[in-house]
């Protein structure tokens, strides 16, 4: 991990990709809009909680920040699995 700024940028990028993919699904599958909006809310919760943990981590060690990054990646993976289930792709 190079810096806290990079970590914040990585988390923001990850969430923006989720939101973008969810927006594409809503355009292609308008009947599943409510389900997809729930995933966008989950993604924004990931962003908020990750940024709060990063900001509260002043003076913490590298493992703390790596844990935040891993948690965000795992949560994003779970959202993508849910999105895949909504769309019906196997």
Key terms for this structure?
mainly alpha; elongated
What can you see in these coordinates?
With 90 residues, the protein is mainly alpha-helical. It has one domain. It is built from three helices and no strands. The protein is elongated.
Give the helices and strands, then pairings.
Blueprint: H1 4-28, H2 33-56, H3 62-87
Helix pairs in contact: 1-2, 1-3, 2-3
- What is the radius of gyration computed over CA atoms, rounded to a whole number of angstroms? 14 Å
> Low-confidence stretches at least 5 residues in length (pLDDT < 50)?
none
Strand content: under 5%
* Span of the ends, CA to CA: 34 Å
Structural class: mainly alpha
Number of domains: 1
Could you give a short description of this structure?
83% of the residues lie in helices and 0% in strands. It contains three helices and no strands.
């Amino acid at each position: 991990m190079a810096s806290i700024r990079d970590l914040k940028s990585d988390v923001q990028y990850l969430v923006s990709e989720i939101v973008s993919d969810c927006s594409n699904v809503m355009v292609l599958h308008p009947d599943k809009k409510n389900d997809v909006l729930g995933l966008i809310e989950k993604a924004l919760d990931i962003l908020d909680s990750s940024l709060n943990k990063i900001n509260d981590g002043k003076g913490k060690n590298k493992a703390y920040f790596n844990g935040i990054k891993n948690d965000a990646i795992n949560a994003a993976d779970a959202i993508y699995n849910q999105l895949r289930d909504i769309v019906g792709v196997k």
